[in-house]
Specification:
The protein contains ten helices and 27 strands. The chain is of the alpha+beta class. A six-stranded antiparallel beta barrel has the order 1-2-3-6-5-4. Strands 8-9-10-13-12-11 form a six-stranded antiparallel barrel. Strands 15, 16, 17, 18, 19 and 20 form a six-stranded antiparallel beta sheet that branches.
Amino acid sequence: MTNLSVRKFLAAAAMACLSFAPQYASAIPAGANLPDFADLVDKVGPAVVNIRTTTRVSGSTSQRAVPPGMDEGDMSEFFRRFFGIPLPQAPNTPRGGDRGDRGGSPDQSDNGDGEKSNGVGSGFILSSDGYVMTNAHVIDDADNIYVTLTDKREFKAKLIGADDRTDIAIVKISATNLPAVTIGDSNKLRVGEWVLAIGSPFGLDNTVTEGIVSAKGRETGDYLPFIQTDAAVNPGNSGGPLINMQGEVIGINSQIYSRTGGFMGIAFAIPIDEAMRVADQLKSTGKVVRGRIAVSIGQVTKDVSDSLGLPRAEGALVSAVEPGGPADKAGIQPGDIILKFNGNPVEADTDLPRMVGDTKPGSKATVTIWRKGQSRELPITVVQTQPEKMAKAGEPQTPTPKAHPSNSLGVTVSDLPAEQVKSLKLRTGGVQVDAVEGPAARVGLQKGDIILRVGDTDVSTAKQFETATAHLDPQKMVPVLVRRGENTQFVPIKPRAQGK
């Protein structure tokens, strides 16, 4: 290609780029459409506080440990250069000079006792008269709680109440005309919305991070479902607010998923609706009272729902019932599936504890259960939560097992002695597993398990069990109700063809 040809080619390419550029530029969202968080921070930031806690220690152990060859000035410079934060304060040392109206210095007893730093977290002001919400784990084991405002005033706070189950705590400071947050509605939150997190990660006060709502109703094994976000949340952010684009608090930053202790893109916040219900009780009585019906529950899997004839996998599987408790008196049995509580659908097993817990003790309720292929409603009286005492299973008495199970489930069983049926409080009896092979072994049945039901047939003798398993369809899963220890659950088993 000649130089002239090259110039013509480049000129044509340039014209093509210029003609395409306006179309490409129009596809890019204008900068004005991107979120600006500055006004939100100005609005909400003054109501976000830093919370630090201390514990009392003897005078001989309250001094800060300084490595050999370094004085406190050296340590201060080390923290400033490498961590960007001041050296953590020694016990009984005011932060930044005289405390003045910031709550005064910590109490010191005559025997030389002082204070030791216990932790740092975040919180936010609920009302102008000084009520502050934070996480229960932030103030756990604290002898003294200090709340620092954005204007640098520090107050010694009084603990009003804490609820470990939801990780919510309320403290009170003696101040008035304080800036307070606006509470939003976490039920209206949508996945993909922009959110802000404000707090004190690593003790760095009033740090603002942004992100989006990654998921809602995230179950992590705790009492409450969480809001998942990718806003950067680190140690010290706990107790701080999660804020929507209207400047409303819709969650409390509580947990992070991390393998290193730092932020990895996944953080969890407590929905503010649930937190406020707890806060109202803490403010009025200092504690949270919940209802219970005294059952242990488990997940309903698709295999279980299919084998029981449920249209879909939903509800909570009753694995144990406390003798003499509300559920026992109402007639609920191990193996029942609780589908509704007071008319509200139980979509997953984790929904039931919240529904029951939010019900006032002494209230009458209706439980809809699924048993043996049909639903029924049972009236129940909710009682107050207390440490649950489940009946302990008696020691199994194992007769000599048959060498080779011959039924389609691959299970050898024997009758339970009457005294064992009584000690286990079995309503319909049951049979004890003596040996397993084939289908039963593959699904995890073990020697010593107790089989209560095969399909919709209760079994209380080995003969009844053999009859119930004699003509099972090898093409269909059969639900077998099994008790192991104190727990009862359905185990779907696919029978083998007879003679195999």
